[in-house]
Amino acid sequence: MNALQLDTVLLSKDRTCLEILDQTLLPGTIKVLHVSKIEDIWEAIKLLRVRGAPAIGVCAGYGIALTASNIDTDNPKTFEEKFMEQKNYLASSRPTAVNLFWALDRMERTMRANLDKPVAQIKEILFQEAQDIRDEDVAISRSIGEIGFGLLHHGDGILTHCNAGTLATAKYGTATAPMYVAQEKGWTDFRVYCDETRPLLQGARLTAFELHNAGIDTTLICDNMASLMMKSGKINIVFVGCDRVTRNGDTANKIGTSGVAILAKNYGIPFYVCAPSSTIDMSLETGDQIPIEERDPDEVTEMWYKERMAPAGVKVCNPAFDVTDHSFITGIITEKGLALPPFDKAFERFGIGK
Ligand code: MRU
């Protein structure tokens, strides 16, 4: 099974539900959920059945189009009120990935721009907007892949953290896109190292799954092995994804990313963040302003183990993301080009945030 053929989230052909690949069951089970209730869409995002910043944005776009299509009114004012209730509810599912809010805001703008039309027509327009978000995501990832590919050399060892792969987007991924482009161009002499990414194992369960299945030379390592791999010369470049980038280039991504960046700088290895422009939040100046999601302690103490692996009652801290300071980032690859420091100036040149 080539993971590039797996769809993370789609709208069903009859537009009655979302078809969500349940990523909590991967790699063992490939199961598509048919979800129509807003509570179930919220839960799918919260529990990481669909996850990864761009895929969360696509899911939110389809989700609000679907739930708004079920609003039973012909009155645009009532439609607007109910739409906003649904939007605010979906926005409460996860706090860090800005793509969730970006997609919902874009859907709201579309709704408002068309409030002079009959409600049935607004509903159609919202379905189209959600589809555009998905289609654009494929093109954006592809473009990030082409730019990232230009940074690779034959024989490279590439390290990645978490899953910023095709499973985190509509297709290609962001951090994995340069690898898929290299493969498409016939390169066979590069290797990828995946951090397993405690505690939810997105590296082991998802990145290793999708790259290995695509036939890319893939080696899984525990998070605490990255330093040794770097020191021994096995890693020449790092690509990671991100959940939110602030104006100065600080970057929130899966917990552990900042440690990888610090190690990379220590060993003189280029560290690139792959960021669709929808992930760049120009309203925030620095990473200190990014809300960091704190998750259930059971993910650390019990999940994936046959029995609990920590004493009952012990305190547990489980932040899902950390912020990599911009000073550790070599470059930020957006679909509009490679941003080099100072990042705020580069983003402005690319027209991001206008
Ligand atoms: O908690 P997750 O699995 O949603 O976290 C995902 C990540 O941190 C990804 O690296 C990020 O969303 C970028 S996905 C292209």
Mean pLDDT over all positions: 97
Low-confidence stretches: none
Task: Give the class from helix and strand content and strand pairing.
Answer: alpha/beta
Number of helices: 11
Q: What series of H and E elements makes up the topology?
A: EEEHHHHHEHEHEHEEEHEEHEEEH
Largest sheet descriptor: 7 strands, mixed
The Cα radius of gyration reads 20 Å
Number of strands: 14
Spatial order of the strands in the main sheet?
6-5-4-7-10-13-14
Distance between the termini: 41 Å
What does this structure look like?
The protein has 354 residues and is of the alpha/beta class. The chain is 39% helix and 15% strand. The chain contains eleven helices and 14 strands. It has helices at residues 38-46, 53-69, 76-91, 98-113, 119-149, 177-184, 202-213, 226-231, 257-267, 298-301, 343-349; strands at residues 9-11, 18-21, 32-35, 157-160, 191-195, 218-221, 237-240, 244-246, 251-254, 271-274, 280-281, 321-324, 331-334, 337-339. The strands form three sheets. Strands 6-5-4-7-10-13-14 form a seven-stranded mixed sheet. A four-stranded mixed sheet has the order 11-8-9-12, covered by helices on one side. The protein has a three-stranded antiparallel sheet with strand order 1-2-3, covered by helices on one side. Strand 1 and strand 2 form a beta hairpin. The mean pLDDT is 97. Bound molecules: 5-S-methyl-1-O-phosphono-5-thio-D-ribulose. 5-S-methyl-1-O-phosphono-5-thio-D-ribulose binds at residues 48, 51-54, 97, 162, 164, 168-169, 173-174, 202, 241-243, 253-254, 320.
